[in-house]
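Wait, mind explaining this?

_____
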Amino acid sequence: QKDNQELWLRSLCVLREDVIQLLKLPLHIFWSHVIYDQKFHTLCDTFLRITPLIISESSHLLQNQLFQTFMELMFKVFLRIGTNKEAQYTKNRTYPDISPKAFADLLYDNYLFDLPKILDLCLIFSSNRNLLGEMLEGIFRKQRKYFYDIQELIRSTLSMLSKVSEEMGCGLKLGDEVLSPILLQDRPTQ
């Protein structure tokens, strides 16, 4: 048990240093990692998958300063991706900002944010409402396709609840419209 914890803390130290270096990168290199680096995607996905479990279990890790620092750094990474405010992250500004259209397309077409990730971010970083709200507002304002995704999420959820209620004989009806879930890969691109 103690050996596992020490190994985990050493790994967290390495990850922390990697994230610190990532945040220092200039715009073009940072975004190359965000879009093309599979290890980066794995890190973000693992963080979003495991952190709610740590929070829900009131783990001693929440009291660990190293873990708290890592959470703050990951929040900064998501903020940098979600706000498109590169001036605050790069000291040597030799590259122009990403245009709003290109930014919107990068977010959506590369699945940098999707509804499950957004919900996880809300759960994990709810204590930082102002910055989280600013980030989410920017994401939804710049990429309107997320509104369609929310509509489809609600429609699919209601459809599944209707089917479950029918099978259970609960009699819940959603009107005359027959709803069916839509797969992520089948969503419209325009």
